[in-house]
Give the backbone structure.
Amino acid sequence: MTRLVLFVLVMTILACQEPKSERREPAASRVAEKGLEAKAVTYRAPDGGEIHADESGEGERSVLLAHGGRFDKESWSEQARALAKAGFRVLAIDFRGYGQSKPGPGATDRYAGLYLDVLGGIRYLRETGAKEVSVVGGSMGGWAAAEASIASEPGELDRLVLLASSPVDSPEKLKGKKLFLIARDDPSADGTPRLLRFQDQYERAPEPKELVILDGAAHAQHIFGTDQGERLMQEILRFLK
């Protein structure tokens, strides 16, 4: 084989090969992923307290995530992403005195004014385009969400998810559709089953309402880290949709 023939053969083979290029995701996929990125926002509670939050997702359906006493807004990162992927606009808040939010006006204890932080978040979402607002609250955050529901104006809150929430004085005044979630063997501070008081709150709450009891003894947001975590997220998504 002459050098000329060999040269032509090599060039032909190279010409038939597809040029190497950097692998890229489709443009639509990149846009969708970009919409899931959390951005920092702040809003004012009704008493003037400044609340810091992470906002992600897009759309007219929105969900506010209210953390428990041992957490902050960062604790919702995986759940916020799942909700945003499902088509919700998500607002994960830092309660006053937690994370990036400073203690609010007139703070006297860890619970003082927390429900105002949720109420302010509900109104922030409404004022910025949300047509439907739901709140998911765990433990302390569930208590604040429930109190915000009671204090809200008719129609401000559409759905309320109470995850092993601390009890409120007047559950019969809760507004919106309600989902109560708890692990069967979750113990309260005094060692008695938390389920007993939680069921009492459920029974006193007005319709429409649902009660889902999961296996295990994990408390509130800790359930996400157990073998019940996937089911918990599915129940929340089912209810919100």
About this structure: Residues 4-32 have pLDDT under 50 and may be disordered. The radius of gyration is 24 Å.
